[in-house]
User: What shape does this take?
Amino acid sequence: MSARVLRVTGASAVWSPGRASTEPTTLECVDGRIADGVSSGGAESAETLDADGGVITPGLVNAHHHLLQSAFRTLPGTRGVEMSVWLARMRQAYVDARVDPDLVGLAARVALAESLLCGVTTVADHHLTWPPGVDPVQIAGAAFDAAGDVGARLAFVRGTVGCDPDAAASSVARIHAAHLTGARDGVTGDGMRQLAVGPSGIHADGPATFGALGEVARDLGLRRRTQANEQVDVARAAELYGRRPLDLLDEWGWLAPDVTLAHLCDITDSEVALVAGCGASVTHAPACDLPMGWGVAPVARLLDGGVRVGLGTSGGGSNDAGHLLADARLAMQVAPLAGRPMDALEALTMATAGGADGLGRTELGRLTPGSAADLVVWDVSGVADAGVADPVPGLLWADPGRRPRHVVVGGVVVVRDFQLVRCDERAVASELRRECARRGIGR
Assistant: This one.
């Protein structure tokens, strides 16, 4: 069988963490991987993607999302409120909407289509809503199917919010058996599906849940993820245990290299050292935490301490957009509020390799030979980029709300000339709008 070859030609610059130079500006993808240089043979059988004058980056990795929340954006009473109030209002909205696999699938399709149209090729979905009587295997399947429909990579995180520990752990094993045939360390052979476990946080789950999910993660080789040191997390840890959240996570065996901690808005210098020393990674979500008034993580201190930091949008209940590039700009702009300034390349690294490493996926988030052929071609020919000396940091500084011209996942073009290839954007949006209206969401 002949190799599947895609050549991306004509770019003015190629940027990637770990890539020594921007040359060559033609990338060759062979059987879903970045090739070492450009071969001279097989030109007649290669597909060509025109990147004329554009900038190529790795596909962005959204390391923390809640896909279901795309059906619950801008709900009345959910903006600028304390986290405890927000959690209660969102919880009631889910109950009123009668969340089921149909709604999960439609919301996930919208969120993942939006992600691709923002240059995001991999999304970690921390799913936390498990209605009584609804099979978690079907919930997870709806999200995985949505990812397959649009062509995105999905890391599905079986989360918990006060769930029965044993039932939650059992469902992880059933989800793995049903949807990750032949998976190794929680990742399917084609790399398109991944499974992880993730209690919501100390505020919602106790040591029994962290223990049960930790055990099933060890049995199946899965990554572990949780949210820590948010407003409600710190308050509840003090109220219930008289401790700080990270102290409890350390005691419960949840500070380790296979763990990723989201948010960390309230973290001390000694806790930064604790996270760095245990090898855990972190996900920063500034466009969720800042506008809601929940704080800002000291990202530069974490980076300077040797912590791997990724970037996430969080969900539509607190950040109404899935535009990770715009959030990378925000992370760069607000960094001086909590430490030293960050530059654009640091923020881009967080949005690519940083998030990938937190998923244990070092083949993602970079364009080095052998890496997965996930890439984005950004158009820099418009007025917003005129006069820009260096187009790579200009991606953030000049026009962070831009759409990518092309997006490639595993060597397959999924966005071409600013349009989704596998589905119609308007049709995907219309389906969710109709379903939200039918269920009375947002009224």
